[in-house]
Design goal:
By secondary structure, the protein is mostly helical. It has six helices and three strands. The chain has helices at about 10-15, 20-35, 45-55, 65-75, 85-95, 100-110; strands spanning about 5, 40-45, 80.
Length: about 120
């Protein structure tokens, strides 16, 4: 039986920015176990959104850099996304000049059939 873990934002941040050698080495060991099929990692949608916000606001990464990094992580076998279709769609929106949350709302609109109510527009 595989060990299953919910991934917190700080784990994704460490994987991407690699600013703490000790933590990065620990995470690399976990990723190795994911690659070996021992672990499953579950990424909640809220963690994805918070990771995007931290990388953009704190680390000043561009949307393209953020989405490229996250897309690479999410392609790893054993990484499970809470709302895979929505998050993959969000990544495709976000490379354009669309805010991550707006892109997420647009994708949720597609899957739920509800229009998005916002001050910007209804889409």
């Amino acid at each position: 039986m595989k060990d299953k873990f919910i991934v917190d934002t700080n784990i994704l941040i460490r994987i991407i920015v690699q600013d703490d050698d000790g933590q990065v080495e620990y995470i690399k060991e976990i990723i190795k176990k994911v690659d070996d099929g021992e672990f499953l990692l579950f990424v909640p949608t809220i963690v994805f959104v918070e990771t995007c916000w931290v990388l953009k606001s704190r680390y000043k990464l561009s949307k393209k850099e953020i989405t490229d990094c996250l897309a690479e992580i999410f392609q790893v076998d054993g990484v499970i996304l809470e709302d895979e279709n929505c998050l993959n769609g969000l990544i495709s929106h976000a490379v354009n000049n669309v805010d991550f949350v707006d892109a997420l709302l647009a994708e949720k609109s597609k899957t739920t059939g509800y229009a998005v109510l916002t001050w910007n527009a209804i889409f």
